[in-house]
Structures are given as structure tokens and as C-alpha cells.
Write a structure and sequence with these properties.
- There is one protein chain.
- The chain has 120 residues and is an all-alpha fold.
- It folds into two domains: 3-46; 63-119.
- The radius of gyration is 23 Å and the shape is rod-shaped.
- The protein has five helices and no strands.
- The chain crosses the membrane at residues 66-85, 91-108.
């Protein structure tokens, strides 16, 4: 039995549950015939959505890791800059680095969102 026949043998609710398991919002699917839903599932199974390995800034994949990496980066930069300049310039440069990283991360998130929109 082929995958297409197997999917056709399932109910619409089971097909929608498969979509939920893949990470899609199946509640938005209305007015679609079962054959169309089966075809979409076959396409999704053939071309699975890429999962972002590092969804957070600083190549982090969870919030505690992001917080630890941000603290580590701030301490290293503060200590390194302290050797070369005064306290006020050090804090200013640390804020500047943080601002640049924040702007970069916002741009990366916008690019990821744009790719997701094009893919769907």
C-alpha cells in the first residue's frame, strides 16, 4: 500500500492531527477536500520544513543558554576593554556592542520570518 492510499484511508481529523504534529495550524484549513489535504500532506512529507537549530541570538537554542552567553560576552568585553580605556568609555563601548548585536538579531529574525512567509 502506498503512502497516498494510506493517507486516503484516514479520516480528515487524523490528517489534520498529522498537520498539527508537523507544526502547522490545522484549524485554519477549512473548505478543503480530502484529496487536496492528502496531496498537501504528501508535499509536506516530501519537503519537511527546516527547523531552526539556533532560534535565539548568540547561537543559543534555549533561554538559559542565551542568558549565560550574554553574561559571559558582557563580562569578557568589559574586562578586555577595561585594559585599554576608562570606565565610562568601557560602558559606552559595551552598550554600543549590545546595540549592534540587537539590531543584527532583529534583522536576522525579519529575514527568517520573510523566508517562512515565502515558504508557506
Amino acid at each position: 500500500m502506498s503512502l497516498k492510499e494510506e493517507l486516503r484511508g484516514r479520516s480528515v481529523q487524523e490528517l489534520k492531527q498529522m498537520l498539527r504534529d508537523e507544526g502547522y495550524d490545522a484549524d485554519q484549513i477549512r473548505g478543503v477536500e480530502k484529496d487536496e489535504l492528502v496531496d498537501k500532506l504528501l508535499i509536506l512529507r516530501a519537503n519537511p520544513a527546516e527547523e531552526d537549530e539556533f532560534p535565539l541570538p548568540l547561537y543559543s537554542n534555549c533561554m538559559p543558554q542565551f542568558i549565560l552567553r550574554a553574561i559571559f560576552l558582557a563580562v569578557i568585553l568589559f574586562f578586555t576593554f577595561r585594559m585599554f580605556m576608562g570606565h565610562h568609555w568601557n560602558v559606552l563601548l559595551l552598550l554600543l556592542v549590545s546595540a549592534v548585536l540587537t539590531v543584527r538579531n532583529i534583522q536576522v529574525r525579519k529575514e527568517k520570518a520573510e523566508k517562512r512567509r515565502k515558504r508557506v
